[in-house]
């Protein structure tokens, strides 16, 4: 078989494995759908966060693979290191899910509907029913203005970055043992082609799956459970972490 034919086959295999690897791992898309719904992210923000995390996810393993190729590290040693990364990433996902679930429950309990009596200068008053979620404020003339970076507004800022760190640390298990080393026997161009195919397939599958699922979830309207949205997102991430640890 010619080198060109071998590279072509390896590239197609890389794309197929990248797609399958992503679809078979719910941790590649469930956290983004859950966080998008809980944080009320726009479609554009969901797309960019997912794509950025996907690129970081692939880049971590690519960097380790290239270092292995340059230093002549054995495949088994890199597999052991990637296994360690995967185990640690699973625990990190569980910790993040558990922490976010706990915070979501506390927020939901605090967000119980109640009412206050508001009396005006003319003696009239009203008693509106509302809830104290993280972004709710009673507006009075003496208020200095909105408090930035509190509650769910702050979570909407830091959660994408935390997801990015989790995915950078999480390995792409098939990339090094199944793709990069066979490609290295052909040529550097074969390595580049395999990495590009795997990366494009992985990121494209992640973003497409997330956007399709996000569209489907948008039809679920459960206003009575809306205050539990962050808790549900945390639970979904926690379950994904447990599945990763179980190897499912």
**Main sheet makeup:** 2 strands, antiparallel
Could you spell the SSE succession in H and E letters? HHHHEEEEHHHH
Helix share of residues? 55-70%
User: How large is the share of residues in beta strands?
Assistant: under 5%
SSE class? mainly alpha
Q: What's the gyration radius in Å?
A: 23 Å
Structural domain count:
1
Strand order of the largest sheet: 1-4
Distance between the termini: 36 Å
Count the E strands: 4
Write structural notes for this entry.
By secondary structure, the chain is mainly alpha-helical. The chain has one domain (about 5-110, about 150-220, about 230-245). The chain is about 70% helix and about 5% strand. The strands form two sheets. A two-stranded antiparallel ribbon has the order 1-4. A two-stranded antiparallel sheet has the order 2-3. Strand 2 (about 120) and strand 3 form a beta hairpin. Helix 3 (about 45-70) runs parallel beside helix 5 (about 150-170) and helix 3 (about 45-70) packs across helix 6 (about 175-185). The radius of gyration is 23 Å and the shape is elongated. About 35% of the residues are buried. Residues about 115 and about 130-150 have low confidence and may be disordered.
């Amino acid at each position: 078989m010619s080198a060109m034919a071998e590279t072509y086959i390896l590239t197609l295999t890389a794309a197929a494995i990248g797609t399958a690897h992503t679809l078979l791992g719910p941790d590649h898309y469930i956290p983004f759908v859950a966080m998008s719904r809980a944080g009320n992210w726009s479609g554009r923000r969901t797309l960019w966060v997912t794509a950025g995390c996907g690129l970081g996810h692939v880049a971590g393993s690519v960097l380790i693979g290239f270092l292995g190729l340059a230093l002549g590290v054995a495949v088994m040693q890199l597999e052991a290191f990637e296994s360690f990364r995967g185990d640690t990433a699973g625990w990190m996902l569980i910790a993040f899910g558990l922490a976010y679930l706990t915070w979501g429950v506390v927020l939901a309990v605090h967000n119980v509907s109640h009412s206050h009596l508001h009396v005006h200068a003319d003696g009239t008053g009203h008693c509106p029913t509302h809830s104290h979620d993280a972004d709710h404020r009673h507006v009075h003339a003496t208020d200095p203005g909105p408090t930035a970076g509190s509650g769910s507004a702050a979570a909407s800022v830091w959660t994408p970055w935390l997801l990015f760190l989790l995915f950078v640390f999480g390995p792409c298990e098939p990339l090094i043992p199944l793709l990069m080393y066979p490609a290295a026997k052909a040529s550097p161009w074969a390595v580049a082609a395999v990495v590009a195919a795997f990366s494009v397939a992985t990121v494209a599958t992640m973003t497409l799956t997330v956007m399709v699922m996000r569209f489907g979830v948008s039809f679920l309207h459960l206003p009575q459970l809306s205050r539990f949205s962050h808790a549900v997102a945390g639970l979904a991430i926690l379950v994904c972490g447990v599945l990763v640890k179980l190897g499912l």
